[in-house]
């Protein structure tokens, strides 16, 4: 007797058809958004009631960037754990859908590559001191960042998928999550926290450059800082 699928037989006898799941040829890319917080620890206490806590820590980071287009970056983060002083090299290329194994070297032995990041097209952007907390909420990845001299932010990540219905459910989860935190839609920034910090630091540097007059030139007019959302 040939093998058969009992679930398919029962489905056929009941007259019900198995729902068809349509997959796209290409993945819908991971998508991230963020919002400023008044206080990181207050938000973390709230998230521990509605999310699954995964990890956290206090770090010194040096951020290296490679720009692929207007506001599109890949990052290397040289990270030192404050408590253990352990150093790690982290790659984040979600915007360009780049994965670790495509980089041509093993990240576990990546310290030898730190001096060669410039030859790979990466430039040192800035150093920062940060405390992080990471959670999961349904299918979403949630992170809270408290960055010295920059501020506190929550970041929400929707995973990449080939199924449109899953992405739509994820989008509804994002809306529900922000509502639980009482974050207004006008305060949601359509990018991740590192990119936000990169763009704002570059803007500040450019404004400072414009304020510094060259010899024989008049001081340019003052320009107010643009709202973070206008950068994206």
How would you describe this protein?
This protein has 232 residues and is of the alpha+beta class. The protein has a single domain (21-210), classed as Hypothetical Protein Pfu-838710-001 (Beta Barrel). The protein contains four helices and seven strands, in the order αβαββββββαα. Strands 1-7-6-5-2-3-4 form a seven-stranded antiparallel β-sheet.
Show the helix and strand layout.
Layout: H1 6-14, E1 31-37, H2 40-50, E2 52-69, E3 72-81, E4 87-92, E5 123-137, E6 140-147, E7 151-158, H3 164-180, H4 193-211
Features of the shown structure:
232 residues, alpha+beta, Hypothetical Protein Pfu-838710-001, 7-stranded antiparallel sheet, 4 helices, 7 strands, globular
Shape: globular
Structurally, how many domains make up the residues?
A: 1
The description of the largest β-sheet is: 7 strands, antiparallel
Instruction: Going across the biggest sheet, name each strand in turn.
Output: 1-7-6-5-2-3-4
> What gyration radius follows from the Cα positions, in whole Å?
22 Å
N-to-C series of helices and strands: HEHEEEEEEHH
What is the class in the CATH system?
Mainly Beta
Which CATH architecture would you pick?
Answer: Beta Barrel
What distance separates the N and C termini?
Answer: 62 Å
Mean model confidence by pLDDT: 83
Assigned CATH superfamily: Hypothetical Protein Pfu-838710-001
Poorly predicted ranges (pLDDT <50, ≥5 residues)? 217-226
Helix/strand-derived class? alpha+beta
Helical proportion? 10-25%
Number of helices: 4
Strand content: 25-35%
Let me know the number of strands. 7
Here the CATH topology equals: Hypothetical Protein Pfu-838710-001
